[in-house]
Design brief:
Blueprint lengths: L5 H54 L9 H7 L3 E11 L2 E11 L13 H86 L1
Helix pairs in contact: 1-3, 2-3
């Protein structure tokens, strides 16, 4: 329930000023996040194309994977860890790919087929491409969630809080205006009564 007083009017006007001051910041944040979401979607598309290209190259080694040396090949492309860094974008902590760290190779060149080195590099490239896609998808998910939250806040400000505050101010001003007019009217009536009393005495 809104209090229809001058103090309430002052409070509502102050609240409205704060809302209108903060809204552009939210709108800017929303726009920035939308740009980042779009760029990340494009990034994932390019990374997926790169992964497909690596996959085609690796498919050429498919027959060789049946060779006894392929066991060594798969063992030597084991991932130790995936390195990533985080950056702050519009208040959200966003992951970025750094590199894939593979288990260090310890095979003998003399005891393995000649194609092992090339096969290793191609498989590592395929694994790296997949890791890049995974982190980019993680990045997009975080950005989309943050965009969703900010969009809700922008809508709340634009469609609920600001209009509600404006309506409250309008309502209070109408009531205060009516009260002021009534007070003026009462003052005029009182003044006329006083004048009439004076006239009667005279």
């Amino acid at each position: 329930m809104i209090k229809l007083t001058k103090n309430a009017l002052r409070d509502q006007e102050h609240k409205l000023q704060q809302l209108q001051r903060y809204l552009p910041t939210l709108q800017l944040k929303k726009a920035m996040l939308q740009v980042e979401v779009n760029q990340t979607a494009y990034e994932i598309e390019k990374l997926t194309q790169a992964y497909a290209a690596h996959r085609k190259i690796c498919d050429k080694f498919q027959a060789l994977f049946l060779d006894r040396g392929s066991i060594t090949l798969f063992e030597k492309t084991r991932v130790q860890r995936v390195e990533k860094r985080y950056e702050n974008i519009a208040g959200a902590s966003i992951p970025y790919f750094e590199e894939v760290i593979f288990v260090p190779p310890d095979y003998s060149l003399l005891d393995t087929p000649v194609w092992i080195d090339s096969g290793l590099e191609q498989l590592k490239g395929l694994i790296t491409s997949k890791a890049k896609i995974k982190i980019a998808e993680e990045k997009r998910a975080i950005l989309e969630e943050e965009l969703h939250i900010v969009s809700i806040r922008v809508n709340l400000f634009e469609k609920v809080l600001i209009p509600r505050s404006q309506d409250a101010i309008k309502q209070i001003k109408i009531v205060l205006g009516d009260q002021e007019r009534a007070s003026v009217a009462q003052a005029k009536v009182a003044k006329k009564k006083i004048l009439k009393k004076k006239e009667v005495r005279i």
